[in-house]
Amino acid sequence: MVPEFVPGIIIMVLVTNLCFHGIFYVYQQPSFVDQFWGTLLATAIGIIIGCYITIFDRYNFIWIAMRLGETLADYWSRIAVMFMIIHALLFTSNSFTIWEDRIVAFLLSTFGMLTLYEFVFLPKRQSTTALLTATISEKEGTTSGVNPSTANSNYLPLTRFARLLGGYHSAVLIIFTRLASMITICREEQGEYCIPTFNNQNNSSWWVLGLCFLMIFILPACITGYYNLTSSYQAAAPIWINVFLKGILGLNFVYWSLTSLENNSAVIAIPFLRDVTIFKFTLARIIAGFSLIASNVGWLMGPLCIKLNIHNTDVKSHEATILGYTNIYGSEFFLLVINVLMSILLFNKPLAQLSYFLMCNQLLSILEIIDLLKLKENIIGPIALGLLSYQHFFTTGHQATIPSVQWDIGFMLSEKITFPFTQIAIILNTFGPHILVSLSVALLTLWSQPPDVLKPQTLLGRIVSNCGILLTYNTILCLSSFIWVTHFRRHLMVWKIFCPRFIFASLSLIVTQLVVTFGTIAFASGRLIKHINDIFWK
């Protein structure tokens, strides 16, 4: 598709720039549009027209409309569209906008309740969407490379064990969503109806630090439990989960314990606290260097999460089993998510680290739910992850306001503003949930995906599709906030509510676009699929 899109886009960019500059030359150029922004506008319009020309040259409008209708005819697709519309319509009122954190948590809990209902009360319901395309015949299979027996198994009713497992994951999603919503930072407009829990006093309290200490052991154990469901706790997995992650969590605990002692230095008189600043800078730089650089290099060069298990059936014959084969893509990809999680945890305060602990479990439970309900090609997966990212943006101590930016985090690696360390720290602190979700959206396709079912091209295509849905979701939110901030431009609260929300929507869309394009698709997914393809698709 790239050779078809690129020429059309280049030609239309040149044509639109020529038309715009010709019009500006003949008629007077508007005062609010200078030469640079006029060129950018013409280029953007040219890219859009070039894409549409290529699409409608291959597919007609009626076919696209019918495909859209077929997609929205599915039960879970309609739920996803409803979530997206509700979220986008929040910006029509300042009262809805200031309570976005509660509404997003409610929508995510609703998704958990619907999946719980699906597992408990609809045991004989068949797949509501096609994991491996719509109608699969025994003789022909599919063009994706799916063997018929595997394909048809995706249309059988869920087993009792699968229903119990799905109900457990739905309960985890609901409970952890409720627990995460207890971490709050309040807006001025919420008044007495909001009680803030994310404050310096709680972040320096002994009970929060105690929970962070327990997280050193509980978070790796939880991730190990999800890996053991598919026997994927092999080779690189124990090193990443039980050594790297646990070690980084321990160093984070030491760093924030020292910070707590510094904050309480007036109450606790300890002589060495005056010299602890240099030690904290050194510790933070070690953690950042390992999690941002060394761990990712190790992921590129490390082994897969599989193990060859040989059984001696008798003296002359051996039976071999590949442990972790059914989740070979997902288990390896999630190690990269752990790398990003380790780097984000450093630049977040203790209560925010507890929020990320809950987010990690919610994320893995959503992946298991999507796999059990055969919704890997449904738009509900990316929408649910999008809601998860917005919930934890609020529960990590942020609001869509300028004062809620945690500027002090920018000075964790240096005493003064130093490019790029200050900027990296603030970006990872503010947009950490969006970065994690933008990277993890590929797992909707790769989780519990054995290599002998779908061809590499099909896998990558479905990853791109899920990434596109996540980007569409964020684009709709950004467009909605732009429309309503323009509509309410004379509103008294435009600069306190509507405009900051539009700025946040724009920045979150940019961050999501960059991570999805260069991280998820270009770097991680392509490299991993090619590596496994070289081994299993000879």
Write the topology of this structure.
Elements: H1 2-26, H2 35-58, H3 61-72, H4 75-89, H5 94-98, H6 100-121, H7 148-153, H8 160-180, H9 200-203, H10 206-228, H11 236-263, H12 276-301, E1 307-312, E2 318-323, H13 328-346, H14 350-372, H15 380-395, H16 421-440, H17 443-446, H18 456-487, H19 494-536
Antiparallel strand pairs: 1-2
Helix pairs in contact: 1-2, 4-15, 4-18, 6-8, 6-15, 8-14, 10-11, 10-14, 11-12, 11-13, 12-13, 13-16, 13-19, 14-15, 15-16, 15-18, 16-19, 18-19
Coarse morphology: globular
Distance between the termini: 25 Å
- Lateral strand order in the biggest sheet: 1-2
- How many domains, in number, for the residues? 1
The level of helicity is 55-70%
SSE pattern:
HHHHHHHHHHHHEEHHHHHHH
Number of helices: 19
Question: Looking at the chains present, what oligomeric state does this protein adopt?
Answer: single chain
**DSSP summary, beta strand count:** 2
* Secondary-structure-derived class: mainly alpha
* Average residue pLDDT: 87
Low-confidence stretches: 127-146
Largest beta-sheet details:
2 strands, antiparallel
Strand content: under 5%
Keywords: Membrane, Transmembrane, Transmembrane helix
Transmembrane segments: 6-27, 36-55, 75-91, 103-122, 206-227, 239-258, 278-301, 322-347, 424-447, 459-486, 498-524
GO molecular function, one term: mannose-ethanolamine phosphotransferase activity
GO biological process, one term: GPI anchor biosynthetic process
